[in-house]
Structure formats: C-alpha cells, structure tokens
C-alpha cells in the first residue's frame, strides 16, 4: 500500500474523519455551514435525500473538494 501523509496520525482514518471531522475537512464544512455541528453534517452525509434542497449542491461540492485534496496529498506523498 502506498505511503500517505496522515494529517492526524493518532486518529483512526474512518470515513467520517476523512470526509468531515478531520480538521482539514472541517474547515470547509464550518466555513460553508457555520450553523451546523458535526452531528448534523454526518446525518446529511448519511441521508442526503433528507437534506434541504438548497444545501445539496454545497454538500456535493465540499465532498468533492475534500476527496480531491485527500488524494492530492496521497499522490504527493508517493513522489
Ligand atoms: Zn485528520
């Protein structure tokens, strides 16, 4: 398995950590949704059909950004 830069070496790399609770990801969530806490974000990720329609595009954009940033770090670690 390729080596990766782990921003949080003491934290298990769960799906929720990767997508939302990692401080690197949480910066984005909290800047776009300052009124939502982690529990609300996680609920929205697990049940996107229950999200308010006006929040859905932002959820998708943040997930895409976080995913891209995660893999950019992973590939950078391989070079
Ligand atoms: Zn992290």
Describe the structure.
There is one protein chain. The mean pLDDT is 89. This protein has 4 helices and no strands. With 79 residues, the chain is mainly α. Helix 1 (15-21) crosses helix 2. The protein is globular, with a radius of gyration of 13 Å. The chain starts with 14 loop residues before the first helix and ends with a helix. It has one domain. Zinc ion is lined by residues 7-8, 11, 17, 22, 24. It comes from Hesseltinella vesiculosa. This is Reverse transcriptase zinc-binding domain-containing protein.
List keywords for this structure.
binds zinc ion; 4 helices; mainly alpha; globular; 79 residues
Condensed summary:
The chain has four helices and no strands.
How do the strands and helices of this protein lay out in sequence?
Layout: H1 15-21, H2 23-32, H3 38-46, H4 53-78
Helix pairs in contact: 1-2, 2-4
The structure holds zinc ion.
Zinc ion (ZN) binds next to loops.
β-strand amount: under 5%
Distance between the termini: 14 Å
Global structural class:
mainly alpha
Round the mean pLDDT to the nearest integer and report it.
89
The count of DSSP E runs of length 2 or more, i.e. the number of strands, is 0
Report Rg: 13 Å
In this structure, how is the largest beta sheet organized?
none
Basic shape: globular
| Total separate domains | 1
How do the helices and strands follow one another from N- to C-terminus? Answer: HHHH
Number of helices: 4
Q: Give a list of the ligands.
A: zinc ion
Low-pLDDT residue intervals, each spanning 5 or more residues? none
Helix content: 55-70%
